[in-house]
Write a structure and sequence with these properties.
EC 1.8.4.12, Peptide Methionine Sulfoxide Reductase, Chain A, Met_Sox_Rdtase_MsrA_sf, 2 domains, peptide-methionine (S)-S-oxide reductase activity, six-stranded mixed sheet, 24% helix, peptide-methionine (R)-S-oxide reductase activity, 11 helices, alpha+beta, six-stranded antiparallel sheet
Amino acid sequence: MRLITIALWFGLALTSTATFSQSSDEKVATFAGGCFWCVEKAFEDVPGVREAVSGYAGGTEVDPSYEQVAGGQTSHTEAVQVYYDPSVVSYTGLLQAFWRMMDPTDLDGQFVDRGQQYRPAIFYHNEQQREIALREREKLREQNRYEDPVVVPVEPFTTFYRAEDYHQDYYKKSSVRYWIYTRNSGRFQFTEKVWGDDYDVDFRKFEDKPAMSDAEQPQASLDFSDYQKPADETLREQLTPLQYSVSQRGKTERAFNNEYWDEERAGIYVDIVSGEPLFSSADKFESGTGWPSFTKPIDDKFVVTKTDRSWFMTRTEVKSRYADSHLGHVFEDGPEPTGLRYCMNSAAMRFIPLDDMAEEGYSEYIDQVKD
């Protein structure tokens, strides 16, 4: 079995580091569903797929190595790009295959492989793929096959780095090790149980439907990639003195004397500056510290950590990715299932009640807020 945690993301436009070429009659799709050995093999079994290429996507570092990605040293995740003949299998057919090879309810990894470098995602290359992915995800939610909500993200494709040669077609090169790993991971047992008699289907029978009307459009994932943080003087005007000193200067508000430490309503906590989604009330717990505490972020892509050596100690600081707001610190003394305690400052966040989330543009996170 692989020793490092897993979680897949896909996406990203081909860069000069990708050595596999697309023929004129083919299309390309990018998916993430955990270990790329498993996802590559599963897609190469689909009729109409010429090749699936393992690689790294979703991060900002240039030309990452397997050791860096698997060790969680980059913002990339393992990914697979699929080259397929649309006259044989549609993008909808690929999505149907994708559902049957992964767990779309788990944002923290896939099966035995844990960590952001193995989180799942669908990365669309064009507007048609985005519409189809959103529509098929909504259909999957309506089937109620899973005990937990279907939350796999649908994100725009940007860059992709081909993995080292020894990872390509790993199931052929190291077949014994591959089968031992994938069977012990629980992947096949999970997907076969979830899909039952619907597990084995002809993926060529699924057609891409026409574009959705505005009324049919599911809400796309929030995109802060173009966000521009306001100037410091603007922030001083927009924020209260406490909000500014906490979020912009890394100060800490007083325990038991802040807005959300005892907040019990259902809702989402977002960055006070940018509105990035940070934490869900479903993951909030009473830590006894006097600050709002959570077991995990609601969406890993909006929360980053860094080493903090201030005050003659070493701690892990938590910040929002795009606004770069200081939120608090994370400690390893929290409850299950993560064992983590994200100890946050109320002044760095804004609380949006569940009933207001759709109106304010956070519909895609409603299922993660409901207990």
